[in-house]
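User: I've been trying to design a sequence by hand for this structure and keep getting stuck. Would you show me what you'd pick, starting by listing the structure so we're on the same page?

Assistant: Good idea, let's start from the same input. This is the structure you sent:
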């Protein structure tokens, strides 16, 4: 079997706060193959951004990280800072959650993309000659063209405020793509955009992913966004992955009661309007006071006694489809009523 491009093993992250240790991510494991899109879904605070920042080692010093993160066979959690600098923005790049604040307002967008080329080149310059500013600018314009910005050579001279929200997001994607990464981490890439622009950006990401054989970790709280692009899907709840599998398995044959609840809460245009949308009763537990057993147990409609006793392991419910639920793993998954 070929080695996955990215392999996250038992990733656990805790923050040291004034109130003590706060768990943020618990025993997260997943793999990503070259050219594959994994959607990471979960509601606010479930640990999606902390997981992605851990991969790039961008968490603040208060974070205590355990586990292993292998990228192309190297454990990034044990790599030196120099090595991490050659990975970040080059082999793995990231589109951050707040694109509008990530651009420098007083710098032309072309210069910002060119700076990504030059920064990478400074790190790699030991092996290759330093790229000239002109060459970096030429590559920046090419990257802006690649993300379908019309009249890219002229728009490269614009400042961020001269561009629409959708165009600024395209600039962010150009910046992330200009050094031809193998893995793109897109953390809520469309959340700040309105629906039609959101669809265009997702389409663009899908096209870039296919034409460059890019692996992508697509993070969103929105199941509809993930369902459009992801080959596989992982669902996070209170810091851990509760279900992971092929997109068709997770969306059409959801095994975990939390995933089923999420699917039933998605409004559909075709839905009978007389049928009320279902919500999941109760609230997510505070991370500082997680129950000893399954974090979803207090809200779960199919819980059994053992659920409250110990944190359940991920169990394979069908080939390639895993759920962290002792009840789901004992019955073969039934087709979700939401589909
Ligand atoms: N620097 C930090 N210090 C302390 N706690 C933090 C820090 N960063 C994140 N957390 C906590 O870690 C948990 C996971 O946060 P994370 O940002 O990964 O959530 P998320 O799934 O990305 O949510 P959202 O959808 O709102 O972006 C939360 O409980 C959050 O409060
Ligand atoms: Mg986040």
């Amino acid at each position: 079997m070929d080695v996955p491009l990215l392999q996250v093993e038992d990733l656990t992250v805790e923050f040291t706060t004034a109130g003590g240790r706060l768990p943020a991510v618990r025993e997260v494991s997943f793999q990503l193959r070259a050219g594959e899109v994994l959607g990471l879904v979960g509601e606010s605070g479930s640990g999606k951004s902390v997981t992605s920042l851990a991969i790039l080692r961008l968490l603040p010093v208060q974070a205590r990280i355990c586990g292993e993160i292998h990228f192309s066979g190297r454990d990034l959690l044990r790599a030196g800072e120099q090595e991490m600098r050659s990975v970040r923005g080059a082999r793995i790049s990231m589109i951050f959650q707040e694109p509008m604040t990530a651009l420098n307002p007083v710098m032309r967008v072309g210069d910002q993309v060119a700076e990504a080329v030059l920064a990478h080149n400074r790190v790699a310059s030991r092996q290759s000659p330093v790229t000239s500013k002109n060459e970096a600018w030429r590559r920046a314009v090419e990257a802006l063209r690649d993300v379908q910005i019309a009249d890219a050579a002229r728009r490269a001279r614009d400042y961020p405020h001269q561009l629409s929200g959708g165009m600024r997001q395209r600039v962010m994607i150009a910046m992330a793509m200009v050094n031809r990464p193998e893995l793109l981490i897109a953390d809520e890439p469309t959340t700040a955009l309105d629906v039609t622009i959101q669809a265009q950006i997702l389409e663009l990401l899908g096209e870039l992913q296919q034409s460059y054989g890019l692996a992508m970790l697509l993070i969103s709280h929105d199941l509809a966004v993930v369902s459009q692009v992801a080959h596989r899907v992982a669902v996070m709840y209170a810091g851990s992955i509760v279900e992971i599998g092929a997109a068709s398995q997770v969306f059409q044959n959801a095994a975990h009661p939390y995933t089923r609840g999420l699917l039933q809460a998605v409004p559909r245009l075709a839905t009978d309007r007389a049928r009320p949308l279902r919500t999941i009763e109760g609230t997510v537990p505070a991370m500082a006071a997680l129950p000893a057993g399954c974090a979803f147990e207090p809200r779960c409609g199919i819980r059994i006694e053992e659920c409250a006793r110990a944190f359940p392991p991920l169990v394979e419910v069908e080939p390639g489809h895993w759920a962290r639920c002792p009840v789901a793993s004992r019955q073969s998954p039934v087709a979700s009523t939401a589909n």
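That's my pick for every position. To get oriented when you compare it with your attempt: The radius of gyration is 21 Å. Residues 333-339 have pLDDT under 50 and may be disordered.
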